[in-house]
Design brief:
The protein is an alpha+beta fold and 172 residues long. It is built from five helices and seven strands, in the order βαααβββαβαββ. It has a seven-stranded mixed beta sheet with strand order 1-2-3-4-5-7-6, covered by helices on one side. The longest helix is centred in the first third of the chain and has 16 residues.
């Protein structure tokens, strides 16, 4: 059986609880067993950033990070979403991260599969982008086979040089 995930929204109260270390409140609000990884330094910066993003643009709440839950066992295996709603050209950028306890089991590919489905079902989307550090072999391997094309590079304040990959949205 192939690895599959479903997404559970992380609304602002959850995004606020996580950097505060209140995992129980976040679990209660989502109804899923978020792991200790959601409190780790590896990911808590993201919760703060997304809260600021929602405050600046409430439309972003429907697009940004969600918990990735393994189907059918219900384990929370990571987080995924888009960097925001589609831009004026219909481009959305994916973001995904797998809890270290669940890496190398196909969950990143499962998250990317669902992100591409999400983009295809959303009005106004035309292109999905992935920005990946050149040394991130795992993420480069994850996008392989999904039709992404290398379209350039950018400088990211946190990650440094990133390669840009894009794929047209494939409507069902």
């Amino acid at each position: 059986m192939p690895t599959t995930v479903r997404f559970v929204p992380l609304p602002p109260p959850v995004l606020s609880a996580l950097p505060s270390g209140d995992l129980e409140a976040a679990r209660a609000a989502t109804g899923v067993p978020l792991t200790e990884w959601f409190l780790s330094d590896e990911i808590t910066w993201l919760w703060r950033m997304r809260l600021d993003q929602i405050a600046a643009d409430p439309r972003a709440a429907d697009w940004i990070v969600r918990a990735a839950v393994s189907v059918p066992d219900g384990a929370v295996v990571g987080a995924a979403g888009f960097h925001g709603p589609p831009d004026d050209d219909g481009m959305v950028e994916v973001g995904y991260s797998t809890d270290p306890a669940y890496r190398r089991r196909g969950y990143a590919r499962a998250m990317l599969t669902e992100l591409l489905r999400w983009a295809a079902a959303a009005p106004g989307t035309a292109t999905v982008r992935a920005s990946i550090r050149p040394d991130n072999a795992a993420s480069l391997a994850t996008i392989a086979g999904f039709g992404f094309t290398h379209v350039g590079e950018q400088w990211d304040e946190q990650d440094g040089t990133e390669y840009l990959y894009e794929v047209p949205v494939q409507r069902p």
